[in-house]
């Protein structure tokens, strides 16, 4: 599972768009030099390393999955980067790790099983940020399934199940073989409500950006994605 997840992050088009969007947001903030950065649901460390390479003073990645953290630490060991920390922790109940100037979160809020946990996640993040700190969160856009097929971009949604506080979406990462996963389809209004309740002073949204066309993914390839992107960037200020 961990290796297939790593493959999807390095090859899937939706992941390339997420990374390009996050790069743009970090550039707009003036970069990372001298900042302390926290990466939530870090997986095997893809975005964590992005923050470290950008010049963050301190970089910490956290994930609830011990196997993902093992993969992340093993990767750093082979690259000789002892300055990146990885910890096993639940985003809904983070220990006191900060304070940080910046937190990034790729799809972490989609795994909140209910509204109580969703609000706990935002409170936990806010507690680890300095006043004025920023949260940059990649979050799925609700409402596309079943009208939109994201298969060309690395994800196939199979079903939506009405359940609890938010619909449960069943999906595959289109690696070889495919990796099944599930996530909650929280509306942007639900996420904004949780952020404000947690004490964030501003909440905004930016559309997902696609990378420049190249020989593999030309302009025509990205046309359908721009019409119905998988995700948006949620920006919050503590």
From TrEMBL:
One function term, GO molecular function aspect: methyltransferase activity
GO biological process, one term: methylation
Gene3D superfamilies: Vaccinia Virus protein VP39
UniProt keyword list: Methyltransferase, S-adenosyl-L-methionine, Transferase
Domain (Methyltransferase) ranges: 38-133
Pfam families for this protein: Methyltransf_25 (PF13649)
Record SUPFAM superfamilies: S-adenosyl-L-methionine-dependent methyltransferases
Protein name per Swiss-Prot or TrEMBL: SAM-dependent methyltransferase
Species in which this protein is naturally found: Streptomyces amritsarensis
Species classification: Bacteria, Bacillati, Actinomycetota, Actinomycetes, Kitasatosporales
């Amino acid at each position: 599972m961990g290796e297939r997840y790593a493959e999807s992050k390095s090859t899937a088009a939706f992941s390339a768009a997420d990374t390009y969007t996050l790069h743009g947001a970090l550039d707009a903030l003036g970069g990372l030099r001298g900042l302390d950065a926290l990466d939530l649901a870090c997986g095997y460390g893809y975005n964590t390393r992005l923050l470290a390479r950008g010049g963050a003073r301190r970089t910490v990645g956290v994930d609830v999955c011990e196997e993902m953290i093992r993969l992340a630490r093993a990767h750093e060991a082979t690259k000789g980067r002892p300055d990146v920390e990885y910890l096993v922790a639940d985003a809904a109940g983070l220990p006191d790790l900060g304070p940080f100037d910046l937190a990034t979160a790729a799809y972490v809020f989609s795994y909140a099983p209910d509204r109580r946990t969703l609000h706990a996640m935002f409170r936990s993040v806010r507690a680890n940020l300095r006043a004025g700190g920023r949260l940059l969160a990649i979050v799925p856009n609700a409402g596309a399934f079943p009208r939109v097929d994201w298969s060309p971009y690395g994800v196939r949604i199979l079903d939506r199940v009405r359940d609890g506080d938010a619909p449960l979406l069943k999906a595959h990462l289109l690696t070889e073989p495919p990796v099944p996963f599930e996530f909650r389809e929280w509306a942007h209004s639900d996420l904004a409500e949780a952020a404000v309740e947690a004490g964030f002073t501003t909440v905004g949204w930016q559309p997902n950006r696609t990378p420049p066309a190249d020989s593999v993914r030309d302009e025509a390839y990205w046309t359908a994605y721009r019409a119905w992107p998988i995700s948006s960037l949620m920006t919050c200020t503590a």
